[in-house]
Amino acid sequence: MALLDLTLPTPATAFIATLPWLSLSVTALCAYATARCIYLLYFHPASQFPGPKFAAISNVPYACHWLRGRWPWAVEEMVKKYDLMDFGTGDGGFIWEQDPAKRREVAKKILPAFSTKAIKAKEPIVHQHIDFFIEKMKSVGGGSEGVDMNTWMLWLAMDMSADLAYNRELHQMRDEKSSDFMETLLGTNLFGTIIQVSKKFPLLAPLAYLFVPPRVIRKVPKTFKMNSQEVQRRIDRRGNTRHPDFVDYMLPPDAPAPTTKKEKVHLEQVALQLFIAGFDPIQLVFFGSLFFLLKEPEILENLVQEIRSSFESYDEIVPDVLAALPYLNACIHETLRLHSANATGMPRTSPGAFVDGIYIPKGLLPVRSGPEGMYWAGDRMEPD
């Protein structure tokens, strides 16, 4: 009678037993990776466009540039080297709608808010905040320690944007400190960046939260809660606000209040986006203009001369007259050319259309380059 072998396998023998399966798994993985690279390089709809090969098969370049805050300049460098490029698809975005058709629907609802008549109606609010900023600079700007202009311009842009978006008063310039809402919103920047990059790596997406401090993650629901509360207060005050704002165009004073959660969430999302779009690019342009002008003393002197020779007093400075100052407008245009006010490249999902005579297949996400025109007009302010 044969005896049963009850000897337990050693770790070494167990490992040897798994080698065939391990070898098969590695072979299959390598075969998949090779096939995927071949597809992306030669058969993917975007393979017809020139660009860096590594970026075509991997999202690592995108992640590196995005995490370093250099994405617009990376795109701009590629535009210099290639006529067209593609850094991969699948960018879901963080704020902006990528589907042109859906974005067009939302734009139609708020387009009247940017008409000439509507903008003229908002001029007094803009004057109020800028005048207050000037007065604060007179009182705090003469100290030996100087002034952190980046912070003050952020306060100015955010105070003004909150007021214009939904009649919200943050009083950051008055109190000379950041509001809880601002600290919460800016505190989620890292979280948004990590989540944005993780969308390029679906298998690693669950690990994204490990790279964000818990205190930052806790701020995310607080941000949306604060925005929701402010929008609700604005709904309750419709028809009884200090001045017109963007919410008036989404929810007219005589319109009924949102009755479903979906309607209220939509209003909250659009209001938050208008608020962010109203302060972030503006603050960047404010600071960018000052930065480039200080680098070019002669240009700054010419601009000061034009402004001071055009007005006898501060009260005479109004938009209609400013629009007629050629050197001032040239400096603003140069700032917009040199300094990107948006870091995402504004990706849009192609419906399958021609752009400048080139067909962009359906589903691709083309993005624009960063600082417009830097590659053909240099990286210095040239208003003359």
Order of helices and strands: HHHHHHHHHHHHHHHHEEH
Oligomer: single chain
Major sheet details: 2 strands, antiparallel
- Please state how the strands of the largest beta sheet are arranged side by side: 1-2
Q: What is the structural class?
A: mainly alpha
By DSSP, the count of extended strands is 2
Overview of the structural elements:
By secondary structure, this protein is an all-alpha fold. It folds into two domains: 148 residues, no CATH class; 158 residues, no CATH class. The protein has 17 helices and two strands. A two-stranded antiparallel sheet has the order 1-2. Strand 1 and strand 2 form a beta hairpin. Helix 3 runs antiparallel to helix 10 and helix 6 packs antiparallel against helix 7. The N terminus is likely disordered.
Strands, helices and their partners?
Elements: H1 11-43, H2 53-57, H3 60-67, H4 71-81, H5 100-110, H6 116-140, H7 149-166, H8 172-175, H9 180-187, H10 189-198, H11 214-236, H12 247-250, H13 261-295, H14 297-310, H15 319-322, H16 326-338, E1 353-355, E2 358-360, H17 374-377
Antiparallel strand pairs: 1-2
